[in-house]
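Task 17 of the worksheet. Students: predict the tertiary structure of the chain below and write it out as structure tokens. Keep your answer in the requested format; marks are given for formatting as well as content.
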Amino acid sequence: MSAALRAVAAVLLLSPVPALAQDAAVTEEDYVTILSMNDCSMTEAALAADLPKLGMDPASLVPVTEDLVARGAATVTDEADGNRRITLGPEICTPVDMAEYGFDAPPEHVAKVTEVLLARNCLLQIADGSAAEAEAGLTTSEFSMAFAVLQSRGEGEIDPVKMELRLINKDCP
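Model answer:
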């Protein structure tokens, strides 16, 4: 993908609104691009959740994953929380610095948002956002950018139906 298309994909991946079309098969190029925006490693669940936002069919992940693992270009490991993590090797994946697309926040902001969400059982109703921002000692913009960083890492997601933010973390239920 070109840099411009990567930027569009990054925005879509962080968007709370799902895409309408969801039938395109994932190509190896798509797969590598998405994982490169997430330090070349994501859980299958996070990856599958992001694909519909890009108009791609999550079921098409399986053959691409199997092919990459068979070629030795990727590994799949089981995590303590039951998720399976896909990690691409450096021969096919170079991490993309999400800051170049405007998705950046100081590590201490990301840590504060993580702490607030952990204290709230890993869920935040969007209606409670002001209170959570105050708990974190962050402005709305700072909190949002920190959560966008979590999303870009596959550690956070927005459920537009339930209107809530969810932390994906080993300490979450």
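Marker's comment: Residues 46 and 154 are 6 Å apart (CA to CA). Strands lie at 41-43, 74-78, 84-88, 123-125, 156-159, 164-167.
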